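Table 4 source record.
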Amino acid sequence: MPAFLVEPVLTAWRAERRRHALAIGRPPEHDLSEIMNAILYIDRTGVQWRYLPHDFPPWETVYGYFAKWQRDGVFARLNSLLRALVRQKGGRNASSSACVIDAQSVKTSTSLPATSQGTDAGKKIVGRKRSIVTDTLGLLLALLVTAASVQDSAAGTRLLDQVATDHPTIRKVWVDGGYRQHFVEHAATLGIDMEITQRTPGTGGFTPIPKRWTVERTYGWLMLHRRLARDYETLPARSEAVIHLAMTDLMARRRVHRKPSRMPDQREPAWRRPDRLPHELPPIERR
């Protein structure tokens, strides 16, 4: 992750904590960017905390920072900052006026407490449910992790209240047919127009659903982080932090993405040009 995008937030967090602690104790010995990279390594590869490579700081230190940053809302703050930057880079306003809501049920690890899990009867999955709100670009606006037995409308009502508070510019929301009538009425009381989008009857195979395909793509982005293939976190709040972290990683990469430049007199390597015949390709070295 590009350090210059996240380092100011992490540095300000550390300075605030030392100010409250009256600067008592040893000065920090680990760089915050290295700790963030270690947490991203866990998120991306899905390894256990104890299996963190020795190139990073000790896993106890990394996990301690992860817990503190989750508790202090650092990951959510980074997500909000980078979302505004990515939207502005794409020629959009920093604040969105429309959003999409959807839910995903995932299986959990065997070590999780049974009280935080449930059964999604429709999908026949025992685990947890991730309900997210994204803008029309697929960037995360709000998030809620619950037991899989929680109805989509119940989780969506809580999410919509959060969106109305944190994003007052939202005036339109798209959902699927799993959200019930009382959810539509609740959206109307918040001044938000809700529209249910469904698959066209008679269509077979994979067919993107208008407006709602962006949130489905967001779930695909999240699955690129193997820590999210299942829910391994004991606390639902930690699960939300891991999702915020995955989106932060994605948006940071998108924010600094640049196509590789090539001078006019430079050509593609011979072996990458499809017009070359097999006998014109360079020989394979024998070793």
